[in-house]
């Protein structure tokens, strides 16, 4: 069989779509070219399409290569939806992108990965079989994943023994990976702020009493529970139920498994009827062969 040409990663922002694309290239021992969609757009006529051709030519020259387009919705939104942009530049960029993906000209071992958090506005031609025919939903992290993200962010940070990361992961239901990273950074900033305040008080005390013995003990040696409590008080989620509902609608539209579940269609043969169907097919095949022998 011919290998798939590309895959689309979609899901809420901050869930690791870009990181996953880099991991795919690393596991395949392939070159990796990352392109931000808005970087290809310019104000000059024809230059945006030329940038798309140049990126694909560079990927073919570096084959085997994983070509990653981040923020794909910025250059591949549905055609004729630009509202009269500069001479239809957006439509021409989409046309050029589709042409390059179809492999017109010299095509080598290039795998295309697109990432977006707005899949519903992508052009339908980009999502058809033969182009980005694999659609992979990158959801919000579940409880074990949230624990893993917290542990990874704090792997080089001294944390107090009374800080339970499992409990912290349970409190952060609905947080993305980026939200959890921000939470850990806020806790760390709180500890740094506490240390700065301690040093300022220490300097003020030394100014009043120059003969004071200097204490070399670290005032804030680790992240404590209070630092995480302060960070949780300011934490916020970047995803909302309306956004998640849009992703479910997209899955129902383009995911065959979801389509079959919604329509109630069952493509599997009944167990008790499989043998009978197979025998009938064999009989029909034998009858067709006998008829061909008569004509011969």
Overview of the molecule:
- The protein is of the alpha/beta class and 296 residues long.
- The protein folds into two domains: 6-137, Rossmann fold; 143-234, Helicase, Ruva Protein, domain 3.
- 48% of the residues lie in helices and 9% in strands.
- The protein is built from ten helices and five strands; from the N terminus they run E-H-E-H-E-H-E-E-H-H-H-H-H-H-H.
- It has helices spanning 17-27, 47-61, 89-101, 143-153, 165-171, 177-208, 225-234, 241-254, 256-263, 274-295; strands at residues 6-10, 31-36, 65-70, 110-116, 134-137.
- The protein has a five-stranded parallel sheet, sandwiched between helices.
- Helix 3 links the parallel strand 3 and strand 4.
- Helix 4 (143-153) crosses helix 5 (165-171).
- The longest helix has 32 residues, at 177-208.
Specify the overall morphology: elongated
DSSP helical segment count: 10
Pick out the low-confidence regions. none
Termini distance? 35 Å
Task: Write out the strand line-up for the largest beta sheet, numbering strands in chain order.
Answer: 2-3-4-1-5
CATH topology of the largest domain: Rossmann fold
Work out the helicity level.
Answer: 40-55%
Biggest sheet character: 5 strands, parallel
Question: Rg from C-alpha positions?
Answer: 28 Å
Total domain modules = 2
Mean pLDDT: 81
């Amino acid at each position: 069989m011919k290998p798939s040409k590309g895959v689309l990663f979609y899901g809420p922002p901050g869930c690791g779509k870009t990181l996953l694309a880099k991991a795919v290239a690393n596991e395949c021992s392939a070159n990796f070219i990352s392109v931000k969609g808005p970087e290809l757009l310019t104000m000059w006529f024809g230059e945006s399409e030329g940038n798309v051709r140049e990126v694909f030519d560079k990927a073919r020259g570096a084959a085997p290569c994983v070509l990653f387009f981040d923020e794909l919705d910025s250059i591949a939104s549905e055609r004729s939806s630009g509202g009269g942009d500069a001479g239809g530049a957006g439509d021409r960029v989409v046309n050029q992108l589709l042409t390059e993906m179809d492999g017109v000209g010299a095509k080598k071992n290039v795998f295309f990965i697109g990432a977006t958090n707005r899949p519903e506005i992508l052009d339908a031609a980009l999502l058809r079989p033969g182009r980005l025919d694999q659609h992979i939903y990158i959801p919000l992290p579940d409880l074990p994943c949230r624990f893993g993200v917290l542990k990874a962010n704090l792997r080089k940070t001294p944390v107090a023994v009374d800080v339970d990361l499992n409990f912290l992961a349970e409190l952060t239901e609905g947080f993305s990976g980026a939200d959890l990273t921000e939470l850990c950074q806020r806790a760390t900033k709180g500890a740094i702020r506490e240390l700065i305040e301690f040093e300022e008080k220490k300097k003020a005390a030394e100014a009043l009493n120059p003969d004071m013995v200097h204490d070399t003990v670290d005032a804030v040696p680790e992240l404590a529970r209070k630092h995480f409590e302060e960070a949780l008080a300011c934490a916020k989620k970047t995803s909302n139920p309306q956004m998640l509902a849009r992703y479910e609608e997209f899955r129902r539209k383009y995911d065959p498994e979801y389509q079959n579940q919604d329509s109630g269609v069952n493509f599997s043969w009944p167990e008790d009827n499989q043998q009978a169907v197979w025998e009938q097919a064999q009989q029909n095949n034998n009858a067709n062969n006998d008829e061909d022998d008569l004509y011969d």
